[in-house]
Amino acid sequence: MPQRPFLAFACAHLTDERLYAAQVAALEADYECAVFAFRDHDSLGGMAEELLAKTPTRFTLIGLSLGGYVAFEIVRRQLQRLERLVLMDTRAIADDPPRREGRLADIAKVKKGGIEALIPELPARWLHPSHAKRAELINLMGEMARSIGARGQYNQQAAMLARPDSRDDLVRVSVPTLVMCGRNDPVTPVPDHEVIAAKIPGARLEIIEDCGHLSTIEQPEAVNRVLIDWLRRTDMHSAAI
User: Fold this and answer.
1) Terminal alpha carbon distance of the chain
2) β-strands 59-64, 6-10: how paired?
3) Quick check: 211 and 180 in contact, CB under 8 A?
4) Is 167 exposed, middle or buried (0-12, 13-18, 19+ CB in 10 A)?
5) Smallest Cα–Cα separation from 207: which of 185, 228, 229?
6) What is the structure's pLDDT at 219?
7) Which of 10, 78, 120, 239 could form an SS bridge with 67, CB 3.0 to 4.6 Å?
8) Using CA atoms, how far apart are residues 166 and 94, in angstroms rounded to an integer?
9) d(CA 36, CA 12)
10) Backbone dihedral region of 16: left (phi > 0), alpha (psi from -120 to 50 degrees) or beta?
11) pLDDT tens digit string along 35-74?
């Protein structure tokens, strides 16, 4: 068991460790940090078990988008392992038919044209309009998607297609919980996070301004301010446990 609190970061769809680079850089002096990018499992259960196998008995879990879905699966499987929970740009509500159709269309696009066929669509699809034209973010998103690859894209989409509605699971969460999202998240908008925060007793909801779906790279300084403040405020709870 590490002496410092352990933070496990769960990555979003088509992102890798670089999704949390700014957060790890800001936190690694005070916390043990591990980032999980999911490539090899086609189920949320497999992703959850991979993360649980590589973390200590108790840890803080931070999940963005797909990472949030993995967090919900861990709540169902091993809730007692969690010291604290951070849910970012995600949703507990199950996919509706149009969203499922979109996932299937993305699978077909990549099957036909490889991951490169999908990459040009990602910035406009996920980022705030003011960030969707930033060359460094466009390049970063392309590089991360390539690192996940076509097979990883299929596995992640298959896992998300099978995900259940998680709203009823959240009422069991009794650890400190932070819910955070971009004000202009086009994929998992603010009302989705209000639902999550309302279900978890005592959850704190924070909105990041001028921000889309990938808040950790769109507004890293704002995310870090909120996250560091919350972690420090809840460190005493973690240590007591």
Assistant:
1) 13
2) parallel
3) no
4) middle
5) 185
6) 98
7) 10
8) 7
9) 9
10) beta
11) 999 999 999 999 999 999 999 999 999 999 999 999 999 9
Q: What angle do CA 98, 104, 107 make, to 5 degrees?
A: 145
Cβ 180 vs Cβ 206: under 8 Å: yes
The whole-number average pLDDT for the span 101-120 is 98
Is this structure's pTM higher than 0.85?
yes
Over range 101-125, report the average pLDDT. Answer: 98
Write down the pLDDT at residue 1.
46
2 pLDDT more than 60 = no
- Side-chain-side CA neighbours of 198 within 13 Å: the count stands at 10
Side chain identity at residue 47, one-letter code: M
- Cβ-based burial of 106 (10 A; exposed 0-12, middle 13-18, buried ≥19): buried
> Residue 62 pairs with which residues in a beta bridge?
9, 86
